[in-house]
Write a structure and sequence with these properties.
Chain lengths: ~375, ~375
């Protein structure tokens, strides 16, 4: 049984609000081609298994796994989909390699949300069909309620949430793949059009199209390749209750439990000190703060303060979402997690250009599947 | 290969039925709790959960895995939903296998559920949305059309008659008379099949499995746990899956090459070199009568085009040399898509443990195989089990 698994290739498209010139298959092809070139691997010869992450309703096609193999070089090969976030797919690939039966596994996720005329109508179909959907509400109301609860429990202010938006969209100015880079102040966010109170329109990440492919390899295989392997030190994933009435609201239990699983594998007891930086889910501004507390990076109620003090800035003590996050890059649906993985890999390889964080050895990527789910995943990556 | 050994230690399933009054979450829990009780474990013993379920459009619930998760016992646990269309039911224990074989999990609960009856007026409508949205959907094809094409190609390639194929329906529906969960068990004749309503020629009504609701579950455990929990662990010795190109119109449908590739992968892992001699009992996927024949060939359990003769000779009967679908299969027990695949894995589990009751095949089988198939005649999933 191999001890360790490494990321040996990453590839992605530009992330853009719309992509009228290409289909999802072309987005997947571009990301896959780049990832295979990055790893210098031939998918038809060198890759043993493929995992794609997608949900039927987001694609407008039932049994969507039918349409994944050809454009990533996977026809007539072991391929399966995960109806989940890319980080869950990465966890699946990680396990496949740990069994010893596979050496190299590729993971793919994409977003083509611009094809969906009214995404919130699709999302509403994820609400409990009997008890919640019948309210007829836009599903983001769940986030508004949760934000209220989080602000009340943690003593975090809307201003601090606004600072998350300003930071992430600012970071995106240094990421030419990002769709929503902007120079904003927290005050702009607070004055933004009211959405789902206390969220303003600018507290909510906007959708973007794009695809990401990540290639994983066993230790022996990774060492034989001419790339700098980035090691997977720990992976965790977890779901709290799907039912809105029986889950935790103030804190993100799913992120806490997923992190505990990942930290146990990685032998991490003090994440803030041992991990250099993180890409965490920021689908909504407050989520970055709630997630950082669930991950144990900051004590409950302290992520907002740390943000205010600049600790999570690119040049801060613990940079968070150097890529720009979902607020800056765009919300990529099931590809959110893999976009974050790519950023952590780029930072650890010192390939992050103008947004490079100096001297980082270990990073964390965390994802959340968005409302109305309570599902998230965590991966710890390191250079050694 | 030095892989960490993984065993099935418990199994459970609901009745398969046309219109369950239970929600999908309730069906899932019925199967999950039965599987846990069968090996005297509780949710506290479960480290992780794998969910298998088919298209969200049956229930009209987006992210159906999230919706089902509580019912599958996944509350505050690592849970994942793998998905390969109709192949999902046999893929879900494969996914459970890699959870445990990775060394990260000791006990994994695998639950497969399907509730097709929520789809009105008929779940066939849901299948209109599986086709390529530019090239195929304008033609408004449905599933029975494309399987009729495949059946016809299979018949033409080898000169197989509808009468040869009808024997599969007769056998499986009769086998299902002994299954307490069966939905469409019947004692019928070949003529009954041939005289049933033509759906899309050459497919008659009695060549097709029914629309069903139901759930099935198995408990997987690492070797050290399995040996503590039961004195009859059933080992998952080989797994395989392959997905062929989406451009199904470019393939010759007479033979399921993806099933052969999946089988070869599983055989290699299980050290099976002569499947016809080494496999004692088999549950190939039989949503249509001809598919059992097609799959027996793809699994290399007989020569190409030979499966109809095997069936006519009685080799595939429960007391034959190679019992095929002793459960009654999808044709007899029913076809709640993902659940029916896991039902097949459960049947092999019970057969190898000698717990299949009236369905028990003679001769104390030691090696069995379950297989499923799905998508656009495109995916094969195979599990080889040993006791």
């Amino acid at each position: 049984m191999p001890d360790r698994v490494a990321i040996v290739g990453v590839g992605h498209t530009q992330f853009r609000a719309t992509s009228p010139g290409v289909s999802y298959k072309e987005l997947m092809f571009e990301a896959a081609t780049r990832a295979y070139a990055d790893a210098d691997l031939d998918p038809r010869r060198d890759i043993d298994s493929f995992v794609c992450c997608s949900e039927d309703f987001s694609e407008g096609t039932s049994i969507f796994d039918e349409y994944v193999p050809d454009q990533i070089g996977a026809a007539l090969r072991p391929v399966h989909t995960i109806s989940g976030d890319g980080l869950q797919g990465l966890a699946a690939a990680h396990m496949q390699i740990l069994t010893g039966a596979f050496d190299v596994v590729a993971v793919e996720a994409h977003s083509k949300t611009s094809n969906i005329l009214t995404p919130h109508h699709v999302l509403a179909l994820a609400l409990d069909p009997v008890f919640v959907r019948s309210l007829g509400a836009h599903p983001h109301f769940v986030a508004g309620l949760e934000m209220s609860r989080y602000l009340a429990e943690s003593g975090t202010s809307r201003e601090q949430c606004g600072q998350v938006v300003a930071k992430n969209r600012g970071n995106a100015l240094f990421n030419d793949a990002a769709a929503y880079a902007a120079d904003l102040e927290a005050e702009d966010v607070l004055q933004g059009e009211p959405a789902f109170w206390p969220l303003s329109r600018l507290d909510i990440s906007a959708p973007a199209d794009g695809a990401v492919v990540v290639v994983l390899a066993s230790e022996a295989r990774a060492r034989a390749l001419d790339v700098e392997p980035i090691w997977i030190s720990g992976v965790g994933w977890c779901s709290d209750s799907f039912a809105l009435d029986s889950r935790e609201w103030g804190t993100a239990a799913y992120a806490r439990l997923a992190a505990e699983q990942a930290y146990r594998q990685a032998g991490i007891s003090n994440p803030r000190r041992e991990i250099g930086f993180a890409e965490v889910d920021d689908t909504f501004s407050y989520k970055e703060l709630q997630h950082l507390e669930a991950l144990g990076v900051f004590r409950p109620g302290h992520a907002g303060l740390a943000t205010e003090e600049g600790a999570t800035q690119l040049d801060g003590e613990f940079p968070v979402n150097p890529s720009g996050g979902s607020l800056g890059v765009g919300h990529l649906g099931e590809a959110n997690g893999l976009q974050k993985v790519v950023e952590v890999v780029r930072q650890l390889r010192e390939e992050a250009g103008p947004r490079q964080i100096p001297d980082v050895e270990m990073g964390l990527a965390q994802s959340w599947r968005g409302v109305p789910t309570a599902t998230g995943a965590v991966v710890i990556l390191s250079r050694e | 290969m030095g892989l960490r050994r993984v065993a099935i230690v418990g199994a459970g399933m609901t009745k398969f039925m046309r219109r369950a009054l239970e929600t999908g979450r309730e069906l899932s829990w019925q199967a999950a709790s039965m599987a846990l009780e069968s090996c005297e474990l509780t949710l506290d013993d479960v480290d992780g959960v794998v969910i298998g379920t088919g298209p969200d459009c049956f229930d009209g619930v987006h992210m159906k895995g999230e919706y089902l998760s509580d019912g599958c016992g996944a509350w505050q646990k690592p849970v994942m939903r793998g998905y390969v269309g109709g192949g999902t039911g046999v893929f879900s224990p494969i996914q459970g296998w890699y959870h445990v074989a990775s060394g990260l999990f000791d006990v994994v609960l695998v639950v497969a559920e399907e509730k097709m009856s929520s789809c009105h007026p008929h779940p066939q409508g849901a299948f209109l949305t599986i086709f390529d949205n530019m090239l195929e959907r304008p033609l408004e094809p449905n599933l029975i059309w494309i399987f009729a094409l495949e059946m016809q190609r299979y018949m033409a390639a080898y000169g197989v008659s509808k009468r040869d194929i009808a024997l599969v329906s007769v056998k499986n529906k009769r086998n299902a008379l002994d299954h307490p969960c069966a939905q469409v068990a019947e004692d019928i004749t070949v003529d009954d099949v041939l005289n049933s309503e033509v759906m899309v020629w050459p497919v008659n009504r009695l060549d097709v499995s029914p629309v069903s609701d139901g759930a099935a579950a198995v408990v997987l455990a690492a070797e050290h746990v399995a040996k503590r929990v039961t004195d009859k662990p059933v080992w998952i010795d080989g797994v395989g899956w392959h997905l062929d190109t989406a451009y199904w119109t470019n393939r010759d449908l007479y033979y399921p090459k993806y099933v052969e590739y999946a089988a070869r992968m599983a055989y290699r892992m299980a050290g099976i070199t002569e499947p016809r001699k080494q496999i004692n009992v088999v549950e190939p996927y039989d949503p249509f009568s001809y598919k059992e024949l097609h799959h027996l060939e793809g699994l290399l359990l007989c020569d190409k085009g030979e499966a109809p003769q095997l069936t006519a000779d009685g080799v595939t009967q429960r007391n034959g040399d190679l019992p095929v679908c002793p459960s009654g299969g999808l044709m007899g027990v029913g076809n709640p898509i993902a659940a029916s695949g896991l039902m097949k894995v459960s049947e092999i589990f019970w057969q190898l443990r000698g717990e299949a009751g009236k369905r028990q095949v003679p001769g104390k089988p030691t090696t069995g195989l379950a297989q499923a198939w799905g998508d656009l005649m495109q995916v094969g999933t195979v599990v080889v089990l040993r006791i």
